[in-house]
Amino acid sequence: MDRVIPKEERRKERNKKLIKYGAIGIGGILLISFLISLMRSGVQKKDLIFSTVDVGTIEVSVSASGKVVPAFEEIINSPINTRIIEVYRKGGDSVDVGTPILKLDLQSTETDYRKLLDEEQMKKYKLNQLKVNNQTTLDDMAMQIKVSAMKLDRMKVELRNEQYLDSLGAGTTDKVRQAELSCNVAQLELEQLRQQYSNEKEVRAAEYKVQELDFEIFRKSLAEMKRTLDDAQIRSPRKAILTYVNNQVGAQVGQGAQVAIISDLSHFKVEGEIADAYGDRVAAGGRSVVKISNEKLDGIISSVTPLSKNGVISFTVQLNDDSNRRLRSGLKTDVYVMNAVKEDVMRLANASYYVGRGEYELFVMNGEDEIVKRKVQLGDSNFEYVEVISGLQPGDQAVVSDMSSHKNKNKLKVK
């Protein structure tokens, strides 16, 4: 016979079932949440680099590439067509003023120089000979003038005598006229000689100046050849380091061919290149910063090439600390050219993510264990900071390390 179960017991039994099923449901939800949490992508916090957005000043710059070169470098060229006979120094050697570097074959050049020395002596003798001849000719003409003047004086005396005799009646008018005519002729001859002497003197002086000028031109040519011969004695013009030397003994070298390079490796400068699109931002006298690893060296742009070549403009940076221990010839560097200052702007640390003005998708810290992708508008920059135009607020922490492997994710769990 069946017994009727009291309502109180049925209620208790039902509550037990509800609690049981509820606990199972809650456990299932927690388990599913846990599994979803495990399945969701995550990153290690230690692998991330965060930058906190703040407000400050940005000295706007444009980036360029640079190369460290010696502050002073001199190329030594062969002044003549010749060949190398001996090499006295090798690349990397320290050289002082006048140190022999290599020896060129100068035999034919020295022979030509000695011939020119003989020709100089001959021209000098000819010039002295011309001077003596001119003086002799002028002296002869001066003597003729003196003789002619004496003849004129004698004829004047004879004229006065004839005039005196004619006044006494002892002479004749014809003799007086004859004496006057002879005197006038002698006067004209004397004037003619004097004019000839003056003209001849000017002509002889001009001829001597022409020959003297020709001799001076020859001597200058001779001095130039002597200088060329001295230059062919390949020696160091100053104290420096020999960074290159043509050490091929017997090799033919043409006039103007490079045979050695000396450099001052205690002081350096930076040769930079920048896209011509930024050419208006680079000017002589502008401030720049050269970055070598983590060290920053200030400098001034000393010169800018006026023309663009292959889409780039070249410029030179004179460093304030041009003897810094990190500087090495040929070292590649980053150069930042300063051109404007922006104050009271939001800014974020500069890193590899930044490639220029525009819109970016950056991961931003959301809570303590999650980063969320956010669209951010970035503006100008320098080597330290990037201007934040929109998308972030002061105090936000944005990831500035490389997140390219998570570019398809919108959220990431920070472990």
Structural notes for this entry:
Helices cover 37% and strands 34% of the residues. The protein has 415 residues and is of the alpha+beta class. A hairpin with a 3-residue loop joins strand 15 and strand 16 (385-390). The relative contact order is 0.19. It is built from 3 helices and 18 strands.
Helix content: 25-40%
The largest beta-sheet arranges its strands as 3-9-12-11-10-13
The total of beta strands comes to 18
| N to C succession of SSEs | HEEEEEEHHEEEEEEEEEEEE
First-last Cα distance: 65 Å
Describe the structure using short key phrases:
18 strands; alpha+beta; 415 residues
Topology (SSEs and partners):
Blueprint: H1 7-39, E1 42-43, E2 50-52, E3 54-77, E4 82-87, E5 94-95, E6 102-104, H2 107-168, H3 173-231, E7 240-245, E8 252-253, E9 258-275, E10 287-292, E11 295-304, E12 312-319, E13 332-349, E14 358-365, E15 370-381, E16 385-390, E17 397-399, E18 411-414
Parallel strand pairs: 1-18
Antiparallel strand pairs: 2-17, 3-9, 3-13, 4-6, 4-8, 5-7, 7-9, 9-12, 10-11, 10-13, 11-12, 13-16, 14-15, 15-16, 15-18
